[in-house]
Specification:
By secondary structure, this protein is mostly beta strands. It is built from 2 helices and 14 strands; from the N terminus they run αβββββββαβββββββ. The chain has 2 domains: 83 residues, Sandwich (Immunoglobulin-like); 85 residues, Immunoglobulins (Immunoglobulin-like).
Length: 199
């Protein structure tokens, strides 16, 4: 009889341990500022699993923040080295309700990637073409009669000698341009000045 009682107690203890095996505190203080996910330290936790869109994504130990780069819904699950977790199942499966934050990046189109600010301050005085510095530009392409003519870097002026309609297109070393197409093809409207050889 003593052996039966002992076995029963062992089974109850095993079942109790299983029931509580996924019951670390639910992560609190979950926040997202920019691309920095952060949370409060959870008592008894030795690490944290990062979940994205309710699926495992990554693990951190010894820190309370994580840099996210992919869009999605993020939540954090605490764990310890004994195999206990704060949340192990979706709410529909009986787990603790998730607290999550959403990370979104701005949608970038091809047009955005190819567009620097349109050149401003374009002027012609005598044979001196000039313009204002454009944020992000590392150089400027000089166009004459809507065709490429020349390139300058570290300058905001150009001496013209051939009559024509002149405009300037900014660019940078990443291959981005202020204007890449004719207006009829969807480009930004050109601003140009006319040099007739007698300015």
């Amino acid at each position: 009889m003593q052996k039966i009682y002992g076995l029963t107690f062992a089974l109850v203890a095993a079942i109790s341990t299983h029931v509580n095996a996924d019951s670390l505190p639910k992560v609190t203080g979950l926040e997202l500022e920019g691309n920095q996910l952060s949370w409060d330290a959870q008592e008894g936790a030795t690490g944290y699993n990062i979940h994205r869109d309710f699926g495992y994504f990554d693990t951190v130990r010894g820190q309370l923040s994580y840099t996210v780069s992919e869009t999605g819904n993020y939540h954090v699950i605490s764990f310890n080295d004994a195999g206990m977790f704060g949340v192990t199942r979706t709410p529909e499966e009986g787990g603790q309700p998730y607290t999550f934050v959403e990370f979104m990046t701005e949608e970038v189109t091809i047009e955005d990637l190819m567009t620097l600010p349109k050149v401003t301050g374009l002027a012609l005085e005598g044979d001196q073409l000039s313009w204002s510095a454009q944020d992000g530009a590392t150089g400027y392409n000089i166009h004459r009669d809507f065709q490429y003519f020349d390139t300058v870097r570290d300058l905001l002026s150009y001496t013209v000698s051939v009559p024509g309609d002149y405009h300037v297109i900014s660019f940078n070393d990443a291959g981005m341009f202020g204007v890449t197409r004719e207006p009829e093809e969807g480009g930004l409207p050109y601003t140009f000045v006319v040099f007739d050889g007698n300015n």
